[in-house]
């Protein structure tokens, strides 16, 4: 089949686009408002952008009905900081709880029964139950055009300035044990998955040199 996205003429009961780019990791973003109110929300439009230095992004649509930006976007822009907490299979129900649209004054940590733990370099708290946290400083926002008011998306980009990894998820080989963590990912519709299988594939040809960041020494710039 083929369809034009502007016409949305796929003839299917559900729009298939979100299931064409999968799986998408979920960024579980914690922020603080200017008034010190904590916010926690999951974003399936999330990924890393670079690794030297590391950058990540999350994309939030406007609130349905009001057209206002989501609290995570506003907070990151106004305070310049946010934390990405890794969403896992074991935490899936709590992740879902924090996806609710609630008033800005509501603390989603308390709503989901989660534990706050202080960050090292920034002010927003981390989710203690999550095995990995990325402390981020806000870099910029890219606002994408939209066909409808609520579908306007704001892509928030942040530089990762600190990383927390729980010791028990680091294997004897010094690598993060992904199968133990079982990161949560979105598949489109209301479907999700988690990582339960991992395989290794060696790079081929001239790509072999691009895999060396694990052992490469940092460059000294004159």
Describe this structure as you would to a colleague.
- By secondary structure, this protein is mainly β.
- It has a single domain (17-214), classed as Pnp Oxidase, Chain A, CATH 2.30.110.10.
- It has 4 helices and 12 strands.
- A 7-stranded antiparallel sheet has the order 3-2-6-9-10-5-4, covered by helices on one side.
- A hairpin with an 8-residue loop joins strand 7 and strand 8 (126-127).
- It starts with 23 loop residues before the first strand and ends in a 28-residue tail after the last strand.
What are the salient characteristics of this protein?
single chain; 222 residues; mainly beta; Pnp Oxidase, Chain A; seven-stranded antiparallel beta sheet; 4 helices; 12 strands; disordered C terminus
Would you spell out the secondary-structure blueprint of this structure?
Layout: E1 24-25, E2 27-32, E3 38-43, E4 46-51, E5 54-61, H1 71-79, E6 81-86, H2 92-97, H3 108-112, E7 116-117, E8 126-127, E9 132-144, E10 153-165, H4 178-181, E11 184-188, E12 191-194
Antiparallel strand pairs: 1-11, 2-3, 2-6, 4-5, 5-10, 6-9, 7-8, 9-10, 11-12
């Amino acid at each position: 089949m083929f369809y034009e996205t502007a016409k949305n003429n796929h003839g299917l009961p559900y729009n298939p686009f979100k299931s064409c780019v999968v799986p998408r990791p979920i960024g579980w973003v914690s922020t603080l408002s200017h008034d010190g109110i904590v916010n926690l929300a999951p974003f399936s439009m999330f990924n890393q952008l670079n690794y030297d230095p590391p950058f990540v992004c999350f994309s939030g649509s406007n609130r349905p009905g009001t057209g206002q930006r989501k609290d995570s976007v506003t907070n990151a822009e106004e305070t310049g900081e946010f934390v990405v907490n890794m969403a896992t299979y074991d935490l899936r129900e709590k992740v879902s709880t924090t996806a609710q649209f609630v008033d800005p004054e509501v603390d989603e940590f308390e709503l989901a029964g989660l534990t706050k733990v202080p960050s090292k370099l920034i002010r927003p708290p981390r989710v203690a139950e999550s095995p990995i946290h990325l402390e981020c400083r806000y870099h910029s926002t890219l606002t994408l055009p939209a066909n409808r008011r609520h579908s306007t998306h704001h892509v928030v980009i942040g530089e990762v300035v600190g990383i927390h990894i729980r010791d028990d998820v680091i294997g004897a080989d010094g690598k993060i044990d992904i199968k133990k963590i079982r990161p949560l990912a979105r598949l489109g519709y209301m479907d999700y998955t988690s990582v339960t299988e991992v395989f290794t594939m060696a790079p081929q040809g001239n790509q072999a040199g691009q895999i060396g960041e694990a052992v490469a020494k940092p460059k000294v710039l004159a």
